[in-house]
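INFO  loader      accepted 1 record
INFO  loader      residues=166
INFO  predictor   begin
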Amino acid sequence: MVQFLLEIKAELENLTNLQPQGGCDDPEFSYYFKLKCGNCGEVSQKETCVTLSEMVDQPKSRGKVHLVQKCKFCNREGSVLMIRGRGRPYTVEDSETQVFGPLMLFDIRGFEPVDFVFKDGWSAESITGTKYDNINFLEGDFVEYDEKGECPVGISELKYNFVVTK
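INFO  predictor   done
INFO  writer      dumping tokens
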């Protein structure tokens, strides 16, 4: 059993608590990444999408997982199971110390996650308490002006890591 912890890092300007819209365990938040086959090393051409709210039966087992996928090159089958409760919002303190913060834990069998994509559905709040929802990173950085705090706010230099855990 191999578990991969998705960690994120960003430059936060006058913002804190960067996380999926409904929190780190948001059942509707979509995680997009490519999968690398553990057998032949082939990387999927398109991103795979998994959400906590969607479960499927695992073939040849009684269990359920969030995704079952076959490698298009060697036909080896693998699965992805998301594990709640291991992520937390990315804070201004994390950004200032330039550390990665945990977002979601994945139990992945037969594959290895690569190329996480920051898309839409994120939220953050300014240091004065203004909430920003539906943040979309598809076109790059997030930049706004906090009228309550009378200062610019922004999110840039988004990075990720998949760390093998036990």
